[in-house]
Amino acid sequence: MPTLKKPFSLLLILSHLNAFVLSGVGNAYAVNQEVNTANVNVATNGVLNISSVQDSKSVQMKSSPKSLFSSSVSATTKATTTNIASNLTANNLTIETTKEDINITGSNIDAQQQLSLNSAKDINIKAGYNGSLNESYTNIQVLP
Q1: Which strands form 87-97's sheet, in the order they lie side by side?
Q2: Helix, strand, coil percentages in the chain from 3-state DSSP, rounded to 5
Q3: Distance CA 17, CA 91 (A)
Q4: Number of C-beta neighbours around residue 144 at 10 A
Q5: pLDDT tens across 25-43, in order?
Q6: Domain locations in the chain?
Q7: Coil, helix or strand for 64?
Q8: Tens digit of pLDDT for each residue in 72-107?
């Protein structure tokens, strides 16, 4: 069973083994991670964050055609934001912090048999965000 111990911030890594243990002093972060094992134990005495990442794309187009009697300016903006979740999957899953909060944002926590979330303070679970923006602008001027 692999065990990681570090005195500062910890970053959860990919594991496809039978069991995974992450423990340490300080804050622990799992960002855009995939863990799928039989047993997972994550413990720290700091803040424990399991987070997604955002993939954002934006395209802007501008055109200024002119004719004999008018001119125009058109601008279009298209943007998308996609949530990419962290995934912790196990038969038995324990997530624990002894002094601070557990924060789970836009991520999937899945235990087939037993799930345990133990926090000295708050357990905060927030949804990820997928969104899009489409914006257009046109200005036409008649020439004298």
Answers
A1: 3-4, 19-24, 34-44, 87-97, 108-119
A2: 0, 70, 30
A3: 12
A4: 4
A5: 455 555 555 565 667 677 7
A6: 3-142
A7: coil
A8: 889 999 999 998 888 888 888 888 888 888 888 888
